[in-house]
Amino acid sequence: MKQLLIALAALLSFGAQAAELDDAMNKAGCMACHAKDKKIVGPSFKDIAAKYKGQDVVAKLSEKVRKGGAGTFGPVPMAPVGPDKISDADLKSAVESILKS
């Protein structure tokens, strides 16, 4: 019973963290152009994860979000997203989450 309660608490904690991350990504505007499994304006999170599978690119992709750019997934540019939109910690968590998609 104790193990079940510990597992439930961990699951609830993970759910709360995921909800906070989703909220941060919504506030930053990520979800206006990206979705988990389909292309909207930008690539899906699954496509991003597939392109960078097995690579240590958290810092590289975080920098790309901060600076913006175009050409990796087509000609549509991505606007830069500053720390006023998403904190460095939330950005790192978001990129790590996307790479696990």
Automatic annotation (TrEMBL):
Keyword DNA damage carried by entry: no
PROSITE patterns: CYTC
Residue span(s) of domain Cytochrome c: 10-101
Signal peptide (from-to): 1-18
InterPro entries: Cyt_c-like_dom, Cyt_c-like_dom_sf, Cyt_c_ID
Keyword NADP: no
Source taxon at top rank: Bacteria
Pfam hit, one: Cytochrom_C
UniProt keyword terms in alphabetical order: Electron transport, Heme, Iron, Metal-binding, Signal, Transport
Protein name (record): Cytochrome C
